[in-house]
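Exercise: predict the fold of this chain.
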Amino acid sequence: MHRRLLTAILFAGLAAAAPQPRRLTLRDAESMALSHHPALQSAKALQRAALEVPKQVRSRLMPTVSASMTAAGMTSEEARLFAGGLNSPSVFNRVASSATVSQLITDFGRTRNLAGSADLRAQAQEEFSNTTRAQVLLQVDRSYYAALRAQRVLRVAKATVAARSLVADQAKALQESKLRSALDVTFARVNLEEAMLLLSNAENEERSTLADLANALGVSVQESYELVEDPVPGNLATTVDGLIDEALKNRPELKQARLEAEAAAKLERAERALRYPTVSAIANTGVATLHTDRFQGHWAASGVNMDIPIFNGGLFSARRNEAQAKTEAALQLARDAENRVARDVRVAYLAAVNAYQRLQLTAQLLQQSEESLSLAQARYQLGLSSIVELTQAQLNVTRAQIAQVSAKFDYQGQRALLAFQTGDLR
């Protein structure tokens, strides 16, 4: 007796010294993941990079200014021939600097279409970032509910071990009083060992789900969390058509696919403009601080240049055909994405409806199992039934409790998946 008391005091002291689990709500978990998850941070970095591409393309529409400086000296201004070369202009002693300004006048919309295509691709990258954000939130929600389920199952397992330990002690006391046989003690011990096995599996499941939750949060260090339950949402709408319409309007993957198709169409128009001339203007002015007497010390010149494509081996037509085929491919991918989203919404809706039905059925099952256990305990204590009936009733209650817990958090997980499929998880 004293040994048991000391052991209980020791375990109580260790439990008091152990660090308390951190309280974590679902909203806290989502905020943590949005701040730390590397996949989302990577998507945001790619989004920032994509925003710089239109600026690079539009730079062709702006004037280009460059400066240059030259200094040269010769032993003789009469030198005109160099070894191994043909007649060359004379090289004079001079120090000169100049500035050159060039400006694209028109390329018949090619640069503007390229810039428009880059803008659309930057918007598509933003939608990719939104998709990654929704995926991170979905992973957090489902991992959170899985960890909650594991913690509640662990609680059921501990309560089951306590209840079956009590029955085992009662059976042993009755056997010692010659009121029950040793067979009852054996059955009770087997029942208790099964509960201990359930407890071991539940503890391992809790540790595994907390590791998954830490990964979903984007952290490498696993902590012990006290997870807070959310209210169970109500039943769903009776039809799925409205949810499909909502998904086709809100899903970022669809927005990305449509923007990619528009960007491909802009690129196609830009490639078609390759067959037109490119007109640009150029101006140059400079001053020679040191020069020969026969030349002036400053100059200025300007001109207009037109590049006309005549023949390049079919390069431009091949680029145009390539862009046209890619536009068609992007349009078909957008259509395929719409079909997949509609399918995914239907499947998620049916799974959520089924999970809600299981939630109601398991509640009824648990109620009936608890009533059956109460009757079995009374009959066993009165000597009207065997321990087999009691252990079966206990087993039914344990199964019903686990089924109820699983149904509850499975339903919440399915609702999170449905919110993701309709584009409401942001």
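Check your answer against the key: Strands lie at 22-24, 64-72, 94-106, 225-227, 278-290, 298-307.
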